[in-house]
TrEMBL record:
It comes from the Eukaryota. GO terms for molecular function: formyltetrahydrofolate deformylase activity; transferase activity. Deformylase involved in photorespiration. Prevents excessive accumulation of 5-formyl tetrahydrofolate (THF), a potent inhibitor of the Gly decarboxylase/Ser hydroxymethyltransferase complex. It comes from Arabidopsis suecica (Swedish thale-cress). Coiled coil: none annotated. This is formyltetrahydrofolate deformylase.
Amino acid sequence: MIRRVSTTSCLSPTAFRSFTKWSFKSSQFHGESLDSSVSPLLIPGFHVFHCPDVVGIVAKLSDCIAAKGGNILGYDVFVPENKNVFYSRSEFIFDPVKWPRRQMDEDFQTIAQKFSALSSVVRVPSLDPKYKIALLLSKQDHCLVEMLHKWQDGKLPVDITCVISNHERAPNTHVMRFLQRHGISYHYLPTTDQNKIEEEILELVKGTDFLVLARYMQLLSGNFLKGYGKDVINIHHGLLPSFKGRNPVKQAFDAGVKLIGATTHFVTEELDSGPIIEQMVERVSHRDNLRSFVQKSEDLEKKCLMKAIKSYCELRVLPYGTQRTVVF
């Protein structure tokens, strides 16, 4: 079995300059896509693994799946050069009668203990509960509207428990009617510089699996992040690390940039500096006015946020050090 095949990685030179001193190695075993029609007895699953790098990890994980009659459709591995760390993600199909869900957890946990794994996570979308999330936003609602429509169409694999905003919305607006129709609660919590209403927010988001800041223009304190204790994902209206702070789109427009971007990242105590999950760019020119400039920026934000959330739910995003991510 070939364990790794060297590949060339295309990374943003601005955001990931320090990556250039590492080479990337990845392994893929390609088969039928999870979206393809398969036997009704077989259902898809994902597994991600993070442990110190030693010989035999891929063989052991593959044997575990094969021994239960499972079939691997895709396998990705990342081992950075000169670092004793191993990351992998597998996509497979299996018969839940032959391999019960609880037994699957136990089997992968046995391997995790053998290799002193830092993380071993299994997800079976058709059997496991959907991730519960809460959405926070301020005045602009283009990201919220996109998420609600994707969720309604079944393209966003989450359950939206509530929407929280520091801006009030009229009850007859499209957003409010949609939320009411689908039984999603809307909480208007006005904030001030002296009171960010964080205790109230923490109470509302109890029981969620992660939070999404869909253009929430308030800073979350370190106490809030520690109190919540789970991942918070933010969409930044700019190509980090450039144009931080207020109105980055206007900053970029005034600077006459030729590329605009959007960044989805994890929230940390330091403003706009959390590990990056996804980035997208689009070309602009002198022919764009501020209105078309803003429209292109908003479209990017929606696409970038949707892709990041989908990747997160499919276990494609793993922490790499303190400031980076591995995204399979």
